[in-house]
Design brief:
CATH architecture of the largest domain: Up-down Bundle
Shape: globular
Number of helices: 15
Distance between the termini: 26 Å
CATH class of the largest domain: Mainly Alpha
Number of strands: 0
């Protein structure tokens, strides 16, 4: 009797569990490191410098790592990076335990952690489609989309540990879990067709050639360029909004930080429910572009008008935004990763992450500067109005090319 195809193969299960550990661990460590720097320095400026240093590799490293990950084993890169993460968090644990904290040392460790995180994400996104059983892409990416909201829950757990047990235990926990995940990930066995022959020497000249090939490929793909352009603007608007929302809630009578947490919690709930729904239901390929377009408009309109709504309406709006956000993520990543040839996937993923990270950083900086003298409600609406215009100028304008990517049965 022929075995029925399943999503949960050995490879897919190992990578999914490893991603849970990596995602939750990075959420915990990011929160804990921020608290650590604030506690030891007491300086907002040094804390800000720390954040900039952490994010800088996310602009540069994905783009630089792409050509390499299109030539060598992505599976090996994933477990190697998790072993490195385990070692880094163990070093931080020892530093804290021996009370030998040094800001410069932590800054270097933060730079390394930021680089590891950004390269890991490119390797993961590039390898993931290779482990999905044909016909299960929507279901697979619904699983992936449900992992990331769990990071919010782990941040709350980290906050509890900060208050009751100290930060050292968090870093030790991370070191152990990353070590376990990496050990399991060494068992992933997949035919990585993009790998060059072992006998060939890979030098700087070949790297530069691969780098240029990647740029030429993306320039020749109008649909991919339109999708990347829209999500760069969307990242700009989302980051700007995220910068504005907490100050708005904190400084508005009748709201406050606690209600901000509840409102954001409904977005997390929406993402989880959306992921569960997509795990059970597959999109009609012919309707995917229309669904994506509707989702893009709806998310921007809801997010832009959020701060004008009463509190309980905000709950509903964020729940819907979470549901739609998962749909947007699922269609975009499953379609683009299936469309891009395996030998170009690392370079495309790296370029995409670089652009969206630049959008994120620019949005936070612009919003922070403008909020000093402009009203937050109107600013938030304005940032999402930019995103609405971007839908027309990118995805809709290049709809014939984008449909070739989105409207495929995968």
């Amino acid at each position: 009797m022929e075995k029925k195809p399943t999503l949960w193969t050995k490879n897919f299960t190992i990578l999914s569990l490893g991603t849970v550990v990596s995602t939750l661990g990075n959420a915990v460590s990011g929160f804990a490191i921020c608290l650590l720097v604030l506690d030891y320095t007491g300086s907002t400026l040094l804390y800000a410098v720390f954040n900039v240093v952490y994010n800088l590799p996310k602009v540069i490293m994905p783009f630089l790592a792409g050509p390499y990950l299109d030539r060598f084993s992505r599976a090996k890169a994933i477990y190697t990076l998790d072993f490195i993460s385990a070692a880094l968090y163990l070093v931080i644990f020892v530093v804290l335990k021996l009370d030998i904290f040094n800001y410069a040392t932590m800054l270097i460790l933060c730079l390394i952690i930021g680089s590891v995180d950004s390269i890991y994400q490119v390797a993961y996104d590039s390898l993931y489609p290779m482990l999905i059983t044909p016909g299960f892409s929507t279901k697979a990416y619904s699983v992936s989309s449900m992992i990331f909201p769990l990071a919010s829950v782990m941040v709350l757990a980290a906050a509890w540990c900060y208050e009751h047990t100290g930060l050292e235990i968090l870093f030790l926990f991370n070191a152990v879990t990353f070590l376990i995940a990496a050990s399991f990930e060494t068992q992933i066995k997949v035919d990585e067709s993009q790998m060059q022959n072992v006998g060939e020497q890979y030098n700087l000249k070949k790297y530069v050639s691969d780098f240029k090939d990647g740029i030429r490929y993306m320039r020749g793909e109008a649909g991919l360029m339109a999708i990347a352009a829209y999500f760069t603007v969307m990242s700009f608007s989302d980051s700007a909004s995220n910068t504005l929302l907490l100050p708005f809630f904190k400084n508005t009578e009748g709201l406050g930080v606690e209600k901000y947490i509840f409102v954001m919690g409904f977005a997390v709930l929406g993402r989880v429910l959306g992921g569960l729904r997509l795990y059970k239901h597959k999109f009609d390929p012919k309707k995917k572009f229309a669904i994506a377009l509707m989702v893009y408009f709806a998310i921007n309109i809801l997010a832009g008008s959020l701060l004008y709504a009463p509190l309980y309406v905000m709950f509903a709006m964020m729940l819907i935004t979470g549901l739609l956000g998962v749909t947007s993520y699922n269609i975009r990543i499953s379609s683009t990763q299936s469309y891009v040839p395996n030998e170009m996937r690392g370079r495309f993923t790296g370029a995409f992450q670089m652009l969206t990270t630049i959008g994120n950083m620019a949005g936070a900086l612009v919003a922070g500067a403008l909020a000093e003298f402009l009203p937050i409600r109107e600013l938030n609406a304005g940032f999402y109005a930019i995103a609405v215009v971007a839908v027309f100028l990118t995805v809709y304008r290049k709809r014939s090319e984008v449909k070739k990517i989105y409207c495929v049965d995968i």
